[in-house]
Design a protein that fits this description.
Radius of gyration: 23 Å
Distance between the termini: 26 Å
Strand order of the largest sheet: 3-5-1-6
Number of helices: 4
Low-confidence stretches: none
Largest sheet: 4 strands, antiparallel
Strand content: 15-25%
Structural class: alpha+beta
Order of helices and strands: EEHEEEHEHEEH
Number of strands: 8
C-alpha cells in the first residue's frame, strides 16, 4: 500500500476593494494557486508520488474584493520511505517561499501549513509471499477463476504497523467506486470472502 501525507495549507493576505484599494491589497488566493502549481510539479515525470487537491476555499464570494484568505487540503501519495522523506522536504521548500507583495510593497502574504496525517507506506515484503499464496489458494477454491494479489494505491490503518510484522490486507468483499456516491459492493462476494478469511485463520 502507498503512504499518504495530508496537508492543510492556509495563506493570509490583505483584502480590499479590487479597484480603489488594489495597490495596498495582496491576494491570498493568487499566492496559494502559485504554491499549488509548484506542488503539482513534485512528481516530475514519475508516476509517483501523486498530488491531489481535495478542497480549495478562498475569498468572500465577491467579484470586487481582493481575497484576504485562502485554504487548501492536499493529499500526496508516496510509494516508499525514501520518497516520503523527499516529498516532505519538497513540500516544505515550496510552502516556505516568500509570499507575494502588494503593489505598494507594504504588505505580504504569509503561509501556514500543517501535515494533519502522515501515513507511512506499506511496501511489499518477500516474507509475505507464502502467506499470500495460501490465501489465494483458498479464494480460488471458493470463487474459481485466477485470483491474484495486487498493489493498492490506497492507504489503511495497517500501514502504521510498519514493515516488520507480516501484514496481509485487502481481504474484504469486491466493489467499486470507493469513497464516492457510486460506491458499490458485490453482494455475492460477502459470503465467499468471509468464508475465505475464516479458513485462512484456521
Amino acid at each position: 500500500r502507498q503512504g499518504n501525507l495530508w496537508y492543510r495549507i492556509e495563506v493570509l493576505g490583505k483584502s480590499g476593494h479590487a479597484g480603489r484599494a488594489y495597490r495596498e491589497s495582496v491576494n491570498a488566493a493568487h499566492d496559494l494557486c502559485i504554491k499549488l502549481l509548484e506542488l503539482q510539479k513534485i512528481p516530475g515525470k514519475s508516476s509517483t508520488p501523486t498530488v491531489n487537491l481535495g478542497s480549495l476555499q478562498a475569498g468572500e464570494g465577491k467579484y470586487n474584493v481582493v481575497c484576504g484568505r485562502a485554504e487548501a487540503l492536499v493529499d500526496i501519495r508516496v510509494a516508499d520511505y525514501p520518497q516520503l522523506a523527499r516529498v516532505e522536504k519538497s513540500v516544505a521548500r515550496v510552502l516556505k517561499k516568500p509570499g507575494l507583495r502588494s503593489p505598494d510593497r507594504k504588505h505580504q502574504t504569509t503561509t501556514r501549513f500543517q501535515c494533519v496525517d502522515r501515513c507511512p507506506p506499506l511496501p511489499f515484503q518477500a516474507q509475505q509471499k507464502p502467506w499470500i499464496a495460501t490465501y489465494l489458494h483458498i479464494l480460488k477454491d471458493l470463487e474459481g477463476g485466477r485470483p491474484k494479489a495486487s498493489k493498492s494505491h490506497g492507504s489503511s490503518d495497517c500501514n502504521y504497523l510498519g514493515p516488520k510484522p507480516i501484514v496481509i490486507d485487502g481481504l474484504g468483499p469486491r466493489g467499486s467506486g470507493l469513497h464516492t456516491f457510486e460506491e458499490t459492493i458485490d453482494m455475492t462476494s460477502l459470503e465467499t470472502r468471509a468464508e475465505a478469511a475464516a479458513r485462512y485463520l484456521e
